[in-house]
Amino acid sequence: MKNKRKIIIGIIIGLLIIGIPTSVYGYNSYNYNLYYSKAQNDIESEEYDEAILNFNEAIKYRKNNSEEINEQIKLIHDLKVSKVIYEDGLSKFKEKKYLESISIFEKIKEEDEKRYKLSQEKIYECKKLYININLDKAMKLSSIDKKYLEGLDYVDLALKVNPEHEQALKLKAELEMLYKDQHIYLAKKEAESKNYEEAIKHLDIILEFDDKYERAIELKPEYEEAIEKEKAAAKAKEEAQAKQAAQKNKVTSEKDTSSKESSGVNYQEMLDKALGRETLSIPPYKDIYPVHGHEAIKQELKNLGFSFDSNETAMFEQGKIKIGIVKSGDSWQLATKRWGRNEETVFWRVMSIIWGREIADSNRIYIDYALSMPGSSHKSPYIIAFIAENALRVRVFTTKQ
């Protein structure tokens, strides 16, 4: 009996020895999983401090997993920093400080999957808004204020963010052309007033900006030559005046024919000859312009020197100067295959007859555009200028388009 009791007690002790560790392991495993799961849920809901507390509780029940838990805690610290950075980026975005916002969002690492994706979307949005703002400023400066160089500065700011932005590249090319053409126009205006040195200054501005711009390269030697011709003409005039003075001072009782001829020197003819240019013979400008109506315009064109071979077609011819004009609907179209100072004067006079001096002056630039860009037409409410069949053609409207 005693032996039987001993056996039973031994069995019970054995079962206790086996069962107690099993129960402890189960208890620890349950609590580890419980706190680990809570920590993961805290991370998902961005309750980072709570997540750290739950991970620290979990590690108490499974110390062998301390390395994994420490990595999770390190990740939480990184996520806390990432959240602060992201919120700072949002703050700058709301203040419309897009470049600062971009530099902040770029600090978000891929480990923070949620905010990394959001940051990339915000970077794209910031770039788009920043580019649009600068392109709008550039277009306003160029279209309203004609400040093409300042406009280009804003385009360059946009291109720093996206060097391949199609609209920005197209606008840059347009503003560069307008800036150069603006100074070509100013150079030609100075040249018309014989201010060739000032004209050359405008050409130098262009060549500093674009040293291969053909129109400026072509005009500069022309203006330099004009300066030399003016010097030569001035010298010739001085010599002629000196000769005339000498003849007047010559006391003689005889009125000799040679002295009469010398006293009637045609200085304008000498000046044109010295400058190597044709003399244009047209009546002086009238302050009655503009005139209205077909017959009134036709009569002024006749006064200017146009010969009509029908009611609607005429030709202006003086020496090498040949300019045709035809009435077509609501416009008179001028055409010439040769372009120079005299042709430009005739075109300007026709525009003045129809629209007056001020509009004629402001619309000359469209003729310059047509000459420098022969593949396209250039239009205002008053004229259209273009190259066709190897001739410069300018339609001067008689009513606004």
TrEMBL record:
Disordered as annotated region, ranges: 238-265
Q: Which UniProt keywords apply?
A: TPR repeat
- Domain of life of the source: Bacteria
Establish whether keyword Protein transport is in the entry.
no
The TPR repeats are at 32-65
| Annotated protein name in UniProt | Tetratricopeptide repeat protein
Is Magnesium one of the keywords UniProt gives this record?
no
